[in-house]
Description:
Blueprint lengths: L5 E4 L2 H4 L8 E6 L8 H4 L7 H15 E11 L3 E2 L2 E2 L2 H12 L2 E10 L15 E8 L13 E2 L3 H5 L11 E2 L7 E2 L9 E2 L4 E4 L15 H10 L5 E4 L6 H8 L3 E6 L2 H17 L24
Parallel strand pairs: 1-14, 2-3, 2-13, 6-12, 13-14
Antiparallel strand pairs: 3-7, 4-5, 6-7, 8-11, 9-10
Helix pairs in contact: 3-4, 6-7, 7-8
Amino acid sequence: MEYLNRIILGDCEEILKKLPANSVDLIFTSPPYADQRQSTYGGIGPDEYVDWFLPKATQFQRVLKSAGTFILNIKERVVDGERHTYVIELILKMRQQGWLWTEEFMWHKKNSYPGKWPNRFRDNWERLIQFNKDKNFKMYQEAVMVPVGDWAKVRLASLSETDKIRDVSRVGSGFGKNVSNWIGRDMVYPTNVIHMATECSNRNHSATFPVALPSWFIKLFTQPGEVVLDPFIGSGTTALAAVGLGRYFVGIDTSREYVEEAQQRILATQVRLPNIGERRNVYSTASSHSKVRSSR
């Protein structure tokens, strides 16, 4: 319990060796991309990236519960005019480690500004790759349902006879649909494309995602009182999301500057939300040794 609700300074590969096995419900993180964040994380080259990441993935696998989920936010970079394959290579190597490559989500950045490159267009999306240890993992799909949308007003107003039965795909895929199932429904399940703006308010970190992004996955894969780990926590966005949803967090980072900033953001959030301690009584603003600690 001593690690809960703390932002810890250090290398996650070493810190996680001290955590109990099977103690984390969700890992959500965005590690430094290849050749990125040179001043704060050293800038791992794309050819060395897989070897750098795999020992850390071993520890992620050890601390993650069998029904837990690991979400990896990462994107290939361009090297000598083409996309490097280090993300694809990492996926294949992690499968050899025993991970299941269960799903892949796409984060569409709604507020990306224009740009011009001689041989490509601007990146406007990032991968969020889902790994699991077991096929039977926890997932709470109802927690992320979305409004059905205006399409239903027209599409469901005049149904054909085919719409009222399970219409099997004509291409032989085995898939089918019954459009009438959605009559009277206000909420539906989302797709694996997540439309969110990038974070603009936190300018002290070089690669900040919005609080809404980890929040979406925390709701999908955990329940209140469970544990969320971010081993590259940066300025603390994942921890903020966990606090706001009544989950425990464990955050790790090698940058003292980011660790201190993350601690301050967590404390400030708890000041703005005085009822935070009422959420299963698991949060405390005690900051002994400049650490945010659990009250348990």
